[in-house]
TrEMBL record:
<feature type="transmembrane region" description="Helical">
    <location>
        <begin position="74"/>
        <end position="91"/>
    </location>
</feature>
<dbReference type="Pfam" id="PF00361">
    <property type="entry name" value="Proton_antipo_M"/>
</dbReference>
<feature type="transmembrane region" description="Helical">
    <location>
        <begin position="232"/>
        <end position="250"/>
    </location>
</feature>
<keyword id="KW-1003">Cell membrane</keyword>
<feature type="transmembrane region" description="Helical">
    <location>
        <begin position="418"/>
        <end position="446"/>
    </location>
</feature>
<keyword id="KW-0560">Oxidoreductase</keyword>
<feature type="transmembrane region" description="Helical">
    <location>
        <begin position="520"/>
        <end position="545"/>
    </location>
</feature>
<dbReference type="InterPro" id="IPR052175">
    <property type="entry name" value="ComplexI-like_HydComp"/>
</dbReference>
<feature type="transmembrane region" description="Helical">
    <location>
        <begin position="644"/>
        <end position="663"/>
    </location>
</feature>
<feature type="domain" description="NADH:quinone oxidoreductase/Mrp antiporter transmembrane">
    <location>
        <begin position="125"/>
        <end position="412"/>
    </location>
</feature>
<feature type="transmembrane region" description="Helical">
    <location>
        <begin position="340"/>
        <end position="364"/>
    </location>
</feature>
<feature type="transmembrane region" description="Helical">
    <location>
        <begin position="197"/>
        <end position="220"/>
    </location>
</feature>
<feature type="transmembrane region" description="Helical">
    <location>
        <begin position="270"/>
        <end position="290"/>
    </location>
</feature>
<dbReference type="GO" id="GO:0005886">
    <property type="term" value="C:plasma membrane"/>
</dbReference>
<keyword id="KW-0812">Transmembrane</keyword>
<feature type="transmembrane region" description="Helical">
    <location>
        <begin position="32"/>
        <end position="54"/>
    </location>
</feature>
<keyword id="KW-1133">Transmembrane helix</keyword>
Amino acid sequence: MNANSLLGLAVAVWALAAILSPVRVMHRTVRALLGAGCLLGMLACIVALPLGTSPAVLGISLASHPVSFAVEPSGLWLLGFGLVPAIFACWLGSPLAGRSGRWYAGAAFSLLGALGVVGLQDGTSLLVAWEVMSLGGALMLAGERAEENEAKPILLMLALLEVGAVALVFAIILLDHAAGGIGFGSFAGGATTSSDVVSWFAGIALLVGFGAKLGLMPFYEWFPRAYSSGSGATGALFSGVVLNAAYFALSRGWNIWLNVAVHPDTAFGLGVIAIAAGVISAILAVLFAFQQDDWRALLSYSSAENASIAIVMLGVTQLFRADHLPDLAGLAWTVALLHLAGHALAKGALFLTADGVFLASGNYDIVQHGWLKRSGFLLGLGAVFSVMSLASIPPQAGFVSEWYVFQSVFQGFHLSSFVGRLVLVLAGAGLALAAAVALATFVKLFGLGLLGLPDVDVTPLVPRTNAISVGILGLCVLAVAVGAPLWLNALAADAQALFNANSPQAMVAGWLLVPLTDKFAFISPSKLIIVMPLLAILPVALLWLTRRRAVRRVPVWFGGMTTNPRDAMTTALTFSNAMRTFYSFVYQPTISTTREHEQREYFIKRLVFAAGVTDLFERHLFDPAVRIVNRCAEKLRALQSGNLNFYLALIGGLLIAILFLTLL
C-alpha cells in the first residue's frame, strides 16, 4: 500500500471518528479510531520519505480551481513526528472530556485540518484547512470544562487566530494577483516577475498569519490560557501536529512562494525581522514559562519558545540564501526541522505526564508529591529523557538541535554584510539566554513536579497507561538523537530541491554530527550513548563503597523551627522568585494580601497572599484595544435607541447622500 492510500485511509478513519463522536457509548471506539488514524498517517510518512508523496487530484474544485494533494518530504517529516505523540494522546483520550463528544470531534478536525495544511496545493483549500484546524482546537477546548471560565480562553485564542487568518487571506490574495493563479505552483512562478513590494507585504503577512498559531509575540499570550483550560492530550496535539503544520506552511511560503533568488534584498530584510521577532519571543516565552505553577501553562510557554527558535532558524536560512550561500541555508533549514521533531516527541511525553498527575491528584499543580518514587520506572525514564531534551542536555534530541542552532548562528562570519553578521551575533546571545532559562525551567518542572517526598494524603498512582506512553515517547526522543546520522538523510531530496545543496548529508560524517565540516565542530550522540553508561561506572562504584559504611541521616535544617522534611520542601513560587525579582522590569510582578476577620477587625481569621506576573501584551496591547471597541460600542448604542424619528432622520440623511452622489 502506497503513502497516498495510507493517508486516504487515515482521513476516512478520522472522518468516521468525527461522525461517531456524539454517540456516548462509542467514545472508546472513537478514541481507537483517532489513534489508528494517527498510526496510519505516521506509517504513510515513513513510506513516502525521502521523496514525498505523488501528486493526486481529489476530483473537487474550490473557487473554480481543482484541488490537488501532495506532501513534500519536509512536510512528511514534521507531520510524522507530530503524529507519534498524537497516537498516545488519542488512545488515552482527554481526562477532562465530557460526555458530549466535542473533544473527539475537535481532535478529528484538528488532524484533518493539519493534513490539509501540509498537503493541499492551492491557496483557497489551504485557508479552508487552516480554519478547520482552528475549529478543531476550539472544539477540543470547548469539550473540556469550558463553562468553568466562561470560555474566555477559547474566545481569546479564536480572536488572535482570526487576526492571523485575515493576514493569510491578504497574503494569498496578493500572491494570486501577482501570479495570476491561486495554485502554489503559480505562486512560485509568479514571484519571478513580481515586485519587491509584493514580496515584502506577502512575507510579513505570512509571518503574522502562521505566527499566530506558532506563538510568535504577541500571539503567544493565548497559549497559557487555552492550554490551561484543556488537558495534556489537547496540549500534545497542539504542540505536535498543529504547531508543526503551521511551521511547515510558513517555511514553504517563504522558501518557495516568494522566490528568494529573485528578491535577495527582500529575503535579507525578512530574515532580519524573523530573527529579531523569534529571539525576543523565545526570551519572553521562556521567562514566563519559568514562573508558572501549572504543568500545562509552563509547557505551553515552552512550546512558544521552541517554535520561536525554529522561526529564528528560518530567518537565518533567508540571510544565507540572500547572500548566495546555499549549503549554509540548507543547514539552518534542516536544523529547524530537526528541532521541531525532537520538540514534538518530548513535549507530547510531558503533556501526557501532566494528564497522569491530574488523574492521580485531581489537579495540574507543580508540587512535590513524589510521583516518580511511586509510579514506576517507565514514567521516570520517559519524563527525564523528555526534560533533558527540552533543557538541551546531552545526549538527547534537544541537545543535538540546540547545538546545531548555535553552530548555524556561528557561521555568520561567512556573510558579506556587516548587518547580517551583527544580527547573528546578537541572536546567538539572545538564544543563549533563552537556553539558560529553559534549563532552570525544566529543572523546576522535574524537581518540583515529579520528585519530592510521597504525599501521605494522595494514595492513587499515575495510571500505568500514561506511564507506558511517556516511557515510549521518551525512548523515541533518545532515538532521534542517537539515530540522527540515519534520519537526516530523509531530508536530502527536499534540501536539494530547495537550495541545490546536500546539507543534510554534509551534516553527517560517519557517527559524527558536524556543521557541514568536521574542521569546525562535531558531536556524536551515537557514541555518547555508549560512553556515558561507561562513565556511570565511577559514581556506581562510589555508591557501592558508601553502602559498605554506616550512613548517618539527619533531618533537613530549616532554621531550627521544624524537623519535618515536608515543611522544608521548595515550592514553585520560592524556586522562581529570585528570577522574578531580577527580571522585574519584564515580569512587572504583582503582590496582594487580603485579610478576613472574625467578628471584629482585631481578630484575623484568614490571611490570603497572592503573587503573580503581568501579561505584557494583554496590559499594553489587548486591553487598550478592548477598551477602544467598548467605547465605540457605547457611542454606537444610540443606533439602537428605538426612537422612530431618529431612524427616519437616518433614512432621510442616506437618501440625501445618495442623491448628492448621483448628481456628482
